[in-house]
Design a protein that fits this description.
Helix 2 (50-60) packs across helix 3. The chain has three domains: 6-116 and 265-292, no CATH class; 120-133 and 250-262, no CATH class; 139-247, Chitinase A, domain 3, CATH 3.10.50.40. It is of the alpha+beta class. The chain is built from eleven helices and ten strands.
């Protein structure tokens, strides 16, 4: 089961206008609920009807399955919160009670541990190491690049044709504005697209992501509109135009820690909720019946 996100669940507990009857008995052969349509899932025998899911789709958006997941999450957390509240027999009272109890459970058990300062250093350090080239790098030049790829194993005749295309492209570009937007448009023209001219935009260091011959030529660019001469090596033919640049950086983990917290915080909060909701799901029996879902409307 894919559990819902924290923000959606909190919104559901605060504003959800309806949910399955919390104490309904589900018989083994009962496939539909009275007035609620097909039963699409059960949580410890509590049914979730098609009408509940339809209401949740209108309230929170997303697919039928996403709405069902949110309602399942609610039932799980309501069950986890149930020991802290008094029993209620009236359905409306039980619903309001469960909504408040889930909100209190989240506020008490989860939200105090979701601040940026709660993110462990090992999580941040792992992110730093995976993105180290963002923090430690030489001068980087952002370029627009027109490429005719060849490859080391291309035979002589198609290679000669590719090189001739690249020379013709270089001549065609002479005197025209050199911007990534104009070059991207050129690559879509049939005269060049049909001859396998491709456009990309990237940050180039001396030897990555494109070969060192490209990096050396790009290193000479200083201002917008400047272009390299045609660079030819065994993998292709390259023309680059300058867009912008980033100076060399050597940012340590300690210096990057706060930036990393800002970048990972929302994703980390969602992961913490998934773990919290999964722990609530473990002792409970959950059954879903996707074969009963109504077809999604075509977009």
């Amino acid at each position: 089961m894919r559990l819902g996100l924290l923000v959606l669940l909190i919104a559901c507990t605060a504003t959800c206008g309806g949910r399955p009857s919390s104490h309904a008995d589900l018989g083994a052969s009962n496939a539909t609920g009275a007035g609620g349509g097909d039963i699409l899932a059960t949580v410890d025998g509590i049914p979730i009807h098609a009408s509940d899911v339809a209401l949740e789709v209108r309230r929170g958006g997303g697919s039928t399955r996403a709405a069902l997941d949110r309602l399942i999450d609610f039932e799980l957390l309501a069950a986890a919160a149930a020991p802290t509240v008094s029993p209620a027999t009236d359905d409306d009272v039980a619903e309001a009670r469960d909504q408040a109890a889930v909100q209190m459970l989240l506020e008490r058990e989860l939200e105090p541990h979701l601040g940026k300062d709660s993110i462990p250093d090992d999580v941040l350090r792992d992110l730093y190491q995976k993105a180290q080239s963002v923090f430690v790098h030489p001068r980087l030049v952002e370029i627009g690049l027109l490429v005719v790829y060849t490859g080391a194993r291309m035979k002589d005749q198609p290679r000669a044709e590719a090189v001739a295309t690249a020379h013709a492209l270089e001549a065609y570009l002479h005197g025209q504005p050199a911007t990534p937007e104009s070059w991207k448009a050129i690559a879509t023209l049939p005269a060049w697209h049909d001859r396998k001219v491709q456009f990309t935009r990237t940050w180039q260091a001396l030897d990555e992501p494109f070969p060192i011959e490209v990096g050396r030529a790009v290193a000479n660019l200083q201002h917008p509109g400047e272009t390299t001469p045609l660079v030819i090596n065994e993998v292709g033919c390259f023309l680059a135009c300058y867009v912008s640049e980033r100076p060399p950086e050597n940012v340590t983990f300690g210096e990057a820690r706060n930036r990393l917290r800002d970048q990972v915080h929302e994703r980390w909060k969602k992961a913490q909720f998934l773990e919290f909701a999964q722990s609530a799901a473990n002792p409970h029996r959950i059954e879903a019946y996707p074969e009963r879902f109504a077809p999604e409307p075509a977009l």
